[in-house]
Amino acid sequence: MALKSLLLRPPGATMTPQPPVLLLFLLLVSTQPCSFALDFLFNSFNSTNPGVDLIQDARVDSSVIRLTNDSNQYSLGRAFYPTRINMRSSPSQNGTASSTLSSFSTSFVFSILPQIASSPGFGLCFVLSNWTNPPGALASQYFGLFTNATVPVQAPLLAVEFDTGQNPEFNDPNRNHIGIDLNNIESAMTEDAGYYNSSGGFVPVSIGNGQNIHAWIDFDGVDLVINVTVAPVGIPRPSLPTLTFKDPVIANYVSADMFVGFSASKTQWVEAQRILAWSFSDRGVAKDINVTNLPVFSLPSSSSSLSGGAIAGIVIGCVAFLILFGFGFYWFWRQNKLKDEEEDDIEDWELEYWPHRFSYEELTQATNGFSNDQLLGSGGFGKVYKGTLPSNKTEIAVKCVNHDSKQGLREFMAEISSIGRLQHKNLVQLRGWCRKSNELLLVYDYMPNGSLDRYIFTSSRNRSNKLLNWQQRRQILADVAEGLNYLHNGWDQVVVHRDIKSSNILLDSDMRGRLGDFGLAKLYSHNEVPSTTRVVGTLGYLAPELATMAVATSASDVYSFGVVILEVACGRRPIEMGKEEEDDRLLIDVVRDFYAKGKVVEAADERIKGEYGAEEMEMVLKLGLACCHPDPQRRPSMREVVALFVGEDLEVAPAEFLGALAAGGDAIGAGGVVAQT
Ligand SMILES: *[C@@H]1O[C@H](CO)[C@@H](O)[C@H](O)[C@H]1NC(C)=O
Ligand SMILES: *[C@@H]1O[C@H](CO)[C@@H](O)[C@H](O)[C@H]1NC(C)=O
Ligand SMILES: *[C@@H]1O[C@H](CO)[C@@H](O)[C@H](O)[C@H]1NC(C)=O
Ligand SMILES: *[C@@H]1O[C@H](CO)[C@@H](O)[C@H](O)[C@H]1NC(C)=O
Ligand SMILES: *[C@@H]1O[C@H](CO)[C@@H](O)[C@H](O)[C@H]1NC(C)=O
Ligand SMILES: *[C@@H]1O[C@H](CO)[C@@H](O)[C@H](O)[C@H]1NC(C)=O
Ligand SMILES: *[C@@H]1O[C@H](CO)[C@@H](O)[C@H](O)[C@H]1NC(C)=O
Ligand SMILES: *[C@@H]1O[C@H](CO)[C@@H](O)[C@H](O)[C@H]1NC(C)=O
């Protein structure tokens, strides 16, 4: 055990002056993890001799590490210190792993610069990992470290994320936060990016605008604490950390020897993630980085207002010039090319949404020149064509939307893009767009099974489609509820769909429901002069308050969804046309009548009799009526609706919800549209 006592460092002792012979001896003799102190400082990186292992797309570009490659659609890059660091210094006497981990301190300077400020951000991670290629890591998202599986797996991987994007499905608070990730993209803890100043006030810091950010991480292996501090370069190290994570669970994510470094990834949007300098020590405080002459990065538009060192100025100047030149050239070329083929100008605003743009030529080719054979339908907003992208044979649906003003199109694009990564399994994915004159072509994923209305009503048009059984119908309602809940609650801003109806619900290849056309209705309401605002939506699905207020809200979406629930459960259209106009009957009134008589289940679709439990059907119909409550305040939220659908059993609805239903019973049974005076 003499060796072991040599290997165990007394606290505070320094190892550097070890005689080389002893070091060599220890290296040769010891097969156990060695505990040589690691202490390094890179104030810049040398491209011929970077000093770190660059993995996949990471590279050194004029003295800084660039983690991803802009020209690849999917890119991931990692930079690791070449040797592992020792995290568990001594196995304990009885063979089990020692409970004491090593401590370390590190600091680094990074810059995250998106090409388009509003594009979804990606960020970067400082990482401790047992592997340089963590198994299951996606090349596109999640920092290039994690899988998309939401179930955390206990494995030695611990990351500190500097996240400039928001994944609401993983509870990200915003687009500018730091977090502790324990082998899971869903952070164990997050804090807004910023620092505490000398008087203890929190100063928010934007980490995703390209400015150089200084970060400090202290890992206390004895008490199992991770402190993270961030501040813009130039601010002295704040004394209070931004984030303190203290949890014994940390030990489960640390192996005996770990690689230490950085990782980042991206999809089609360009975001330059740079590591400018890095200092690390596992025997005390990491050496100070000299931040005086670090390069500065920014987008070309703001470069003129920057002042800095002479070198920084030159670097920015050159970069800006090159980018402007390239951009200008591209713009010029594009404009000429488009003038030739489309005789149409590209508006400045369109450049912002460029990454998703399809060329008109490509879409013409994909749809056989918009031939009638490819026509899938023509709805309220325009014609929809089926197409196949020539490049990768993907099937798409192209919706042609006509609009009288470019302004309306622009606002619509802003809405779609500000929502950023609007992606959910229950939404029809928008793949991109193309504008030709006042026509906007929206490219969606193709849904092979068409829309829900073709499977629940019998009419001459859909005789060929088989009816959906109750199980499928319930599943589709649950799917759509989830999709709509995501629009309402998945983002900082509430996205109101405005036109929910069964013909806007599409069925994918597995007959699962997906909501289409979100936001489109808004395009049309924008078009109107405010004083004459037209109510947008579809008759039969419109909430009564829209007649007086004309402002769509999430509650009016809930109303429309309630109508869809009733349609699907009853197999009847929202308005049954009679011979005379007076014979028209609203489905809601029909169901309300049954409800008032205390036998609401009799409203259910006869053709699926026997497939459902009476209690379950009763719950679904009551839920539909509750969603259609005349008072928007008393409708349930989509969150509550989802909880009911996704919950164990509809029959065992939460007591408070049933209570609310009962309380609203009078109004449910009151029938008709209640006009407020
Ligand atoms: C980079 O490393 C190479 C090889 O080690 C060396 O010759 C060169 O001087 C270094 N460059 C800088 C800028 O330090
Ligand atoms: C980025 O990737 C492309 C294609 O994969 C490659 O040709 C190019 O050299 C890469 N760029 C850099 C700067 O590494
Ligand atoms: C042996 O392991 C147990 C539990 O892992 C620990 O509590 C105990 O202190 C260890 N004994 C020695 C002598 O290290
Ligand atoms: C860490 O990696 C090493 C080498 O790849 C492997 O032998 C070991 O099992 C890994 N440790 C854990 C806890 O997975
Ligand atoms: C994870 O990604 C893989 C491949 O991209 C995909 O097949 C799988 O469905 C995804 N899983 C989840 C839960 O999103
Ligand atoms: C610290 O921050 C708070 C709030 O951000 C601010 O009001 C205060 O003036 C700051 N104090 C100093 C010393 O900068
Ligand atoms: C972490 O921060 C707390 C204050 O929040 C401090 O008490 C503690 O000493 C710090 N630990 C390390 C390892 O820096
Ligand atoms: C930092 O670097 C600059 C030159 O790049 C030098 O003048 C200055 O003395 C350095 N500061 C420290 C504290 O080493």
UniProtKB/TrEMBL annotation:
Entry's localization field: Cell membrane
Principal subcellular localisation of the protein: membrane
EC number(s) per entry: 2.7.11.1
Domain of life of the native organism: Eukaryota
Keyword Transmembrane listed: yes
Gene3D superfamilies cross-referenced by the UniProt entry: 2.60.120.200, Phosphorylase Kinase, domain 1, Transferase(Phosphotransferase) domain 1
MF terms in GO: ATP binding; carbohydrate binding; protein serine/threonine kinase activity
Keywords in alphabetical order: ATP-binding, Cell membrane, Glycoprotein, Kinase, Lectin, Membrane, Nucleotide-binding, Receptor, Serine/threonine-protein kinase, Signal, Transferase, Transmembrane, Transmembrane helix
Name of protein: non-specific serine/threonine protein kinase
Organism, as annotated: Turnera subulata
Upper taxonomic lineage: Eukaryota, Viridiplantae, Streptophyta, Embryophyta, Tracheophyta
